[in-house]
Amino acid sequence: MEPLVGEDLLRKVKELENLSKEEKAKECGYYTVTKNGIERVNMMKFLNALIDAEGIQLDSAPNANGRGGRSASYRISVQSNGNLLIGSAYTKQMNLKPGDEFLITLGKKHIRLRQVDPEDREGIEEIEASA
């Protein structure tokens, strides 16, 4: 039996309200049979499937490749060569594409990036000329 997900899972769990959570998990297909024929309930998969079915998002948005990895910390350090690198976690979150341009404004202790609208090229050239 394939484990239930989504609305089917929620409906089945409501039908089984008088059973224990382990029995519910098993009835919804969240178990495996070991080599020795012992049934082992996969509670973690069951609970995660319930959370997903309810639409609750505990994690930040997953990476585009679907695998885990480091999450964005919203802090960066100046590298030994003097560069500041903004990682792909941030550019993916902002849906930025290769070639997207930004204007850089330097403050006393901050850097502000303003995305350049492709149709606003004339305004950029004026700003660049005055810099």
Automatic annotation (TrEMBL):
CC per GO annotation: protein-DNA complex
Sample GO molecular function, one term: transcription cis-regulatory region binding
InterPro entries: AbrB-like, SpoVT-AbrB_dom
PROSITE patterns per record: SPOVT_ABRB
Domain spans labelled SpoVT-AbrB: 73-118
Any coiled-coil regions, as ranges: none
Keywords from the UniProt entry: DNA-binding
Pfam entry (one): AbrB-like
Name of the protein in its database record: AbrB family transcriptional regulator
UniProt organism field: Nostoc piscinale CENA21
